[in-house]
Amino acid sequence: MPVIALASCKGGCGKSTAALVLAGAYAADGYTVHIIDADRSARLFNWAGFGAKPAAITATCADEKTLRQEVESARQTSDVVLIDVEGSANASVAFAIGYADAVIVPANPSAPDVEDAISTVKLVRDMAGVARRAIPHALLWSRVPSAIRSREMDALEIQVGEGGIPVVGRLHERTAYKSLFSYATTLDHLPQADVPGVEKAKLEAARLAAAVGELLRVGGASAGEAAA
Question: Which CATH number fits domain 3-227: 3.40.50.300, 3.90.550.10, 3.40.50.720, 3.40.50.1980?
Fold first, then answer.
């Protein structure tokens, strides 16, 4: 079953949010999802312990010493495995990339985030060289303002393109994504009467899940593995 790592060399770029968005989208499609929380803050593991998450989503914690065991175990029991790592250049990040079938690198639309995303992509490519295999990867724009496009965004996209980095999609700045943590649930279970923009967020989530599946297929996974 595919292992997807959400990786970055910095914190605050939206890795945990992206992991929950993907987990909810795959669970809504009928797949079982296991989240391996390799961030010392254990934000996703704590999320899984509260609220009303779907039974299809499970979570455990790991560090650089236990990550391999957690990945191997999760591959046997779940359709999709998501790894969320700490936002720093540490051993867990490198190990997660090495175990992954695909790596998503979230980045806010800012120059510092793009610089860190480029560094993370270099790490992915270095690990692919060490492993002597392709590791499909792509940048995910996160917390994108819904306002009119800015010249800064255009310049950042050019910078990413010049680095030969594919882009898997965008997650806009939405209350619904923040509410995933405050309600401790998935987009499908948020109270639409209280949380604005849920339907738009769900459409965005479905597009992202499909794009990640395509990234896996292009990278060599079978259609069944990519969907699951």
Answer: 3.40.50.300
